[in-house]
Amino acid sequence: MRRIMGIDVARGLAVLGMMTAHVGPDDHGPIPPGGFAQLADGRPAALFVVLAGLSLALLSGSTDPVTGTRLVQARVRILVRALLLFGLGELLVILATPVVVILPTYGLLFALGCVALRWSRAALLTAAGVVAVVGPPLGQTIAAGLEDARPTVLTEITVGHYYPAIVWTAYLLAGLAIGRSDLRSPRLRGLGALAGVGLVILGHGGSWVALHLFGWPAALATAEPHSSTTFEVVGNVGVALLVISGCLVVADRWPRVLAPLAAVGSLALTAYTLHIVVIAARGRGVVYDATVEVWLAFILTTIGLCWLWAVSVGRGPFEWVLHRVSTRAADIAPDVLPERAEAPVSRD
Fold it and tell me: With contact defined as beta carbons under 8 Å apart, do 182 and 62 qualify?
C-alpha cells in the first residue's frame, strides 16, 4: 500500500492536536470562543478516528474494494490490529495518567469496521448519518440506565463520556466513505472542502438554533467538545473534511516542507503511545499545570524525533509490530481461479 503524504500530514496534525489537548495551556481568549486551545479539544481525536476509517479503506482496496481471499486477509489484518490496539490501550490506562486513552475505543472501532468493508460509499455515508442521529440519544439512555451498575471496560468504551463507540462509529464510517473516493482528484478535494464548511456551519449553527431558539436540552443540542451529540459529530466531520482536503493539497505542493509533520503521521501510534508514557513519568502536573514551555517541548521533540526516525529507519516500532503481526496472521493462500486449479499456487 503506497502512502499518501497528505493523509500522513493530517494524521500528524491529529496526533499533535491530541497532545495539545493533553499538555497545552488554556488561553481562554474571546476569539474563537474559549480560546485557540479549545480548538484542540475533541476535534483532533475525531479527526484521528475519521482517518482510521480512511486507513481501513486503503487496507481493503481503496476505490476498488477487495473480494474473496483478499477480503478475508484484509479483515484478519484489521481484527489483529484491533486486538493489539485494544491491548496497548489498556496498558496505557494502567499508567493512570489524567489522559483518557482513545486506543481501547479505537481498537473496538477497527473491529466494527470489518463489517462495512464491502459497503458502497452511499451506504457508508447513510450509515454514518443514522449513527450520528440515533447514537447520541440511545447512548445517553443506555448510560443513564447503567449509572448504578458497576462500570466495565466494555460499557466505558461503548457508552462512556469521552469516546463512546455507539456515537464515534459515525466518524469511522465517514472515514471509510472518504477512503473509497479518489483522494488524488482535485475536484473531489474541492467538494470535500465545501462539504466540510457546510457541515461545520450545520453542526455549530444548528446547535445554536436548537439551544437558543428551540430550547432543546443541552445534553442533546450542544456542540461542545466530547459532548458526543449529533451537532458535535456533524461539526467534527466537517472539520475533518476541511483538514484532510487541505492537507492533500498542500502536501502535493510543498512535500519537503511538510515532511517532518508527515513523519509524525507515519509514526502516529508510536508518538501517541510515548507521549502518554512521558506524561506518566512526569506526573499529573504536566497536564493540570500546563505551560507553554512544556507544550512546545512535547510538540517540537515529537516532530524532531519522528522525522529523524522516519528518514533513518522508516516504519515506527509500534507500527512495525502492528504490520508484522497482522500481515503474518493474514498470510493465507490467494484464491485459485477454476480454470487454473491444476496449476501450483505461488505465494507473493
Answer: no
pTM: 0.91
Spatial contact of 208 and 229, defined as CB atoms under 8 Å apart = no
- The cell for 1 is 500500500
- Specify the pLDDT at position 189: 94
Placement of cell 504536566 in the chain? 286
Q: What is the pLDDT of residues 5-34, one digit of tens each?
A: 999 999 999 999 999 999 988 766 555 555
Model pLDDT for residues 168-198, shown as the tens digit of each residue: 999 999 999 999 999 999 999 999 999 999 9
How many CA within 13 A on the CB side of residue 251? Answer: 27
Contact 99, 279 (CB under 8 A): yes
Distance CA 56, CA 341 (A): 31
* Average pLDDT for 30-39: 62
Task: Determine contact, residues 67/251, Cβ cutoff 8 Å.
Answer: no
CB 32 within 8 A of CB 39: yes
Inter-residue contact 301 to 293 (CB < 8 Å):
no
**CA atoms of 136 and 116, how far apart (whole Å):** 21
Residues 124, 171 contacting (CB under 8 angstroms): no
